Amino acid sequence: MEEDKKIIKEHTFKTWSKQKGWEPILVTTARGAYFYDSQGKKYLDFSSQFVNVNLGYGNEKVINAIKEQLDTLQYINPNLGTEIRAKATKALLKVMPKSITKFFFSTSGTEANEAAIKITRFYKAPSYKILARYRSYHGATEGSISLTGDYRRWFVEPHTMPGVVRFPEPYCFRCPLKLKYPDCNLACVNYVDYVIKQEKHIAGIIVEPITGTNGVVVPPKEYLPTLRKIAKENDVLFIADEVMTGWGRTGEWFAVNLWGVEPDILTTAKGASASYVPIGITGVSNEIGEFFEDHVFAHGHTFEAHPVSLSAIPAVVEEYERLNLLSNVKTLGEYLGKRLQELKERHKSVGDVRGVGFFWAIELVKDSKNTPFGTYEDKYEGRPIFTDYLAKKLLEKGVYVFSGPSWFVISPPLISQKEDIDLGVNALDEVLKEAD
Ligand code: PLP
């Protein structure tokens, strides 16, 4: 066991981090909303790992569907058809926003966004610029990291892809424009219309409908429909990055449904297979699909439309339905939100609690002026930050949470029950005493 840890530490990379000081926990098994380490210690997963283990662990129906596919056909090149590809597509057409009718399958959220960039540029040529928000994460490769506005993620490669234009986020807790909702009249989104007209050659706008890794920023209710309208009026593609927000996380199949918004392109991953196998999906509208009848779709991977990845999709959709998870998330999500709001009342270190469904952030502050605990700069310099320290304390107590520089992302598996939520919130209540 110690030998395994040593090999992992010495010969594999810990990501987004200096390697020094990494002490990996050896996880051996997992069931439901819990995972276990090599010592048999039990951990509640209170964040679905990186907001992706939506069905929890050990779902037999999904596992069997994958095994069956492995027994039947493990791989065939993507330009040949498979039964599972038709079945997965049918399942997607059932749950996706109506505007999305054609799909490209890859193996991660990053690749789904890379494909979205290329499709947007093919379709809108000669326009090529893409608008993205400062507070955003769209993936780790050169194109998707260039879209990413979160500068904690930039090291040597920021802006290597030309044509990215950024705009401010609807982060009302610390408004980048120093305004207050609703008196602001949504200046942050109305400004986008001006940017498009000044910049020219804008091909598309990409947003996470609810900002994820950058602290679960739920926009005001008018925000997304207004942005959608601005995109349409200016003949610019509207791309919803639902890698994190899709698949029941918000109590809807996709977060755009919360506001009745229909995107031109929707990218997703994580919950599409509930992370039983790697998958990325780039969905496009009928109009975009038709464009490629006479234009080369100049993109593709060996593992594209991989039968084993695709086999998870219909099984996962069936499980979301059989277990009534959207309704579980709506009902228990309110309870989770209420319990997290109580933490705000009990702890002066909690500055803001925001979210919807099973997708919440609690943001920590140093004082009554809402000074953040960890700043982007702290992380950038690689210094230890307070939320990471508290997350470690939580892990010692047997609760895993996904932490950002000054917030925790609370996003339990969608199968979680009231007692799981109570266990997680009570552990947070304990460790937050150290922050007060
Ligand atoms: N887009 C968003 C909104 C994400 O949250 C993530 C990952 O967290 C990605 C893209 C990248 O997905 P992946 O890590 O599967 O490449």
Structure description:
- There is one protein chain.
- With 436 residues, the protein is α/β, with parallel strands linked by helices.
- It has a 7-stranded mixed β-sheet, with helices on both faces. A 4-stranded mixed β-sheet has the order 1-2-3-13. It has a 4-stranded antiparallel β-sheet with strand order 11-12-15-14.
- A hairpin with a 2-residue loop joins strand 11 and strand 12.
- Helix 7 runs parallel beside helix 8.
- The longest helix is centred in the C-terminal third of the chain and has 22 residues.
- It is globular and about 60 Å long.
- Pyridoxal-5'-phosphate binds next to helix 5.
- InterPro entries: Aminotrans_3, PyrdxlP-dep_Trfase, PyrdxlP-dep_Trfase_major, PyrdxlP-dep_Trfase_small.
- One of its GO terms (molecular function) is pyridoxal phosphate binding.
Notable traits:
single chain; 14 helices; transaminase activity; 16% strand; Aminotrans_3; 436 residues; binds pyridoxal-5'-phosphate; pyridoxal phosphate binding; alpha/beta; PyrdxlP-dep_Trfase_small; 4-stranded mixed beta sheet; aminotransferase
Chart the SSEs and their pairings:
Elements: H1 2-11, E1 27-31, E2 34-37, E3 42-45, H2 48-51, H3 60-72, H4 83-95, E4 100-106, H5 109-124, E5 129-133, H6 142-147, E6 164-167, H7 187-199, E7 202-207, H8 223-233, E8 237-241, E9 265-268, E10 280-285, H9 286-291, H10 307-322, H11 325-346, E11 350-356, E12 359-364, H12 376-380, H13 386-396, E13 399-400, E14 402-403, E15 407-410, H14 418-431
Helix pairs in contact: 3-10, 4-10, 7-8, 11-14
The structure holds pyridoxal-5'-phosphate.
